[in-house]
Amino acid sequence: MPRAATTSDAFNAVAEPRRREILGYLALRERPVGAIVATLGIEQPSVSKHLRVLRDVGLVRVRRDGRRMLYRLDAEAIRPLHEWTGQFERLWRHQLDRVKERAERTSAPEPRPIEPPSKEEE
After folding, report:
1. Is 60 buried (19+), middle (13-18) or exposed (0-12) by CB count in 10 A?
2. I need a surface site. Which of 13, 16, 69, 90 has the fewest CB within 10 A?
3. Range of the domain at 47
4. The domain that contains 29 carries what CATH number?
5. Per residue in 34-84, pLDDT tens?
6. Is residue 84 part of a domain?
7. Taking the CB of residue 118, how many other CB atoms lie within 10 A of it?
8. Structural domain includes residue 102
């Protein structure tokens, strides 16, 4: 079965690590392309292509401010991703609790048995 195009939906779009990195950066506030390029160290043409994909699937909004184009995350569009991954939160939490319990068991010192006083001490 052929893989869906990265522009088909938000899930496919965020499968690319650089796009997730850009989304994380845009989550903080609205940014121009130049700031994304400078901060993330991704070439400008690549950033523009990634932003276009993210915009096409609705994860990013753009507005013009004079000559600059400012990009921001669309938090409402992220909701389906958040809700889907939330299904797995219980599993992750349960696994982490088990790891923590095991670590606490293995790091706790073994209790030393109390020995009765020797006959010489009596």
Report:
1. buried
2. 90
3. 10-77
4. 1.10.10.10
5. 999 999 999 999 999 999 999 999 999 999 999 999 999 998 888 888 888
6. no
7. 7
8. no
Helix 17-26 to helix 44-56 angle, to the nearest 10 degrees?
A: 80
Confidence (pTM): 0.68
**Total domains, the chain:** 1
Which among 76, 75, 28, 34 is positioned nearest to 51, based on CA atoms?
34
The 10s digit of each residue's pLDDT in 19-34 is 999 999 999 899 999 9
Return the biggest CA–CA distance within the chain.
Answer: 94
With a CB cutoff of 8 Å and minimum separation 6, the contacts of 73 are 23, 26, 27, 59, 60, 61
In a 13 Å sphere around the CA of 99, the CA atoms on its Cβ side amount to 6
